[in-house]
C-alpha cells in the first residue's frame, strides 16, 4: 500500500514509486525550479581598484577591473564554452567540459529548449519560444578572489585595539583614582574603608567566577576573614597579616565541613586561593598606608609605577607590538609592550622617588622595574585564571574595565614588591 506524502503530494513512495526520468538540466549549477539562474548569480559583485589589482595580480590571472577588456571577457554574455580555447584565459587554455555528453547534431540547426514541465509534474508550465525565453545570465568565468577590506564589519568602528570602550574606561579610571587619592591625602582612615570595600568586592567576584569550575567556597567566612586580615595588617603589622590569613582559612574549613564532605577538596582549594590572592596581597597596601609620616606617599609612588607600567605597555604594544609574549595565556601582550611597561615605570619611578624620598635615581629606576615586572606577572596570573575558567572578565561592574579584579590584578602583585623595596630604600621610622 502506498503512503501519502506528508507535504501534500499523492505520489506513491517506496517500492510503488515509478522511476522518474532524468531531469533536463544540463549542469549541476542550475537548480530545478530556478530557470536558468546560475548558482553564482546571487553573489555580490567584487569591485577592485587598479592599485589593489596591481598588488595581488598574478601573471596567470586576468585583470578584473570594471571597464578593462579582461573583465568584460570574464563577464561575457552567452553560454559557457564546453571545449576549445577559453577566451577569458590569458593563455587561451582550453576549458574542459564538466558534464560531457552527447550533444545535438550541428547539421540539424539549433533546437528549442524543451519544456521542463512536460517531464516534471511538480513544476509549473513555462511557455517556451523565442519571445518568452528568459535572458541568459552573465556567467563569471574568471577566478574568484577574496573580498578585501570591506564586508559587514567594515563599517563598525572599534573603540580601541584592546576591544574596550575607551571613553568609558578613561572615565571609570579617573573616578577610581579620585576615590583612592582623595581619602589618601585627607583622612587616611577613609582610605582603609575604601581598601576594605575593594577587598570584599574582589572576593565576591572571585567566588562568583569559580562557580564555573563547580567550586562553591563559603563566601561568608571568606569575606569576613578578608576584612579582618586587612584590618589586622593596618593596626598590627606584617605578623598580624599572616595571622589573619590563617584565621580566614581555618574559619572557612570549619564552615565548609558543616555542609558535608561532597566536593570538600575542590571548595577548600578555591577558598584558599581567594584568601591568598585578594585579602592577603591587598594587606600589603594597608601596610604601606600605615607607615608613619609618609604612608600616603608610599602608596602614591606604588600606584604611579603601576599606572605608568600599564600606560607604557599599552602605548608600546598598540604601536610596535609584533612578538607575542604569552600567546596561550594573553594573546594581546607582546614583548614590545613589556619593554614599554618597564621603561615607563623605571623612568617615572626614578623621578618620583628622587623628588619625594631623596632616593638616588638608579635605585628609583630599579624600584620601577621591579614593580612593573610584578604588575605584568599579576596581569598574566589573572589572565590564566580567567582562561581556565572560560571567562573574559570577572564581572561587568566597571564599564570599559570589566570587574574590579580586572583592575586590581596588577596592583595585588605590585604592592608586596613595593613594600619590600621601600622598606630597604626608604627605612620606616617606628
Summarize the structure in words.
With 430 residues, this protein is mainly alpha-helical. Among the domains are: 105 residues, no CATH class; 136 residues, no CATH class. The protein has 11 helices and 2 strands, in the order H-H-H-H-H-H-H-H-E-E-H-H-H. The radius of gyration is 36 Å and the shape is globular.
The gist of it:
By secondary structure, the chain is an all-alpha fold. The chain is built from eleven helices and two strands; from the N terminus they run H-H-H-H-H-H-H-H-E-E-H-H-H.
List the SSEs and their pairings.
Blueprint lengths: L49 H7 L12 H6 L91 H20 L2 H22 L9 H18 L1 H20 L6 H26 L5 H26 L3 E3 L3 E5 H22 L4 H29 L15 H21 L5
Antiparallel strand pairs: 1-2
Percent of residues in helices comes to: 40-55%
Q: Runs with pLDDT <50, length 5+?
A: 1-10, 29-40, 88-95, 140-160
Q: Helix count, per DSSP?
A: 11
Oligomer: single chain
| Shape designation | globular
Largest sheet, strands/sense/barrel = 2 strands, antiparallel
The tally of strands reads 2
Strand order of the largest sheet: 1-2
Mean pLDDT: 76
> Could you tell me the radius of gyration in angstroms?
36 Å
Question: What structural class do helix, strand and pairing data support?
Answer: mainly alpha
What is the element string, with H for helices and E for strands?
HHHHHHHHEEHHH
In terms of DSSP E residues, the strand content is: under 5%
Q: Report how far the terminal alpha carbons are from each other.
A: 102 Å
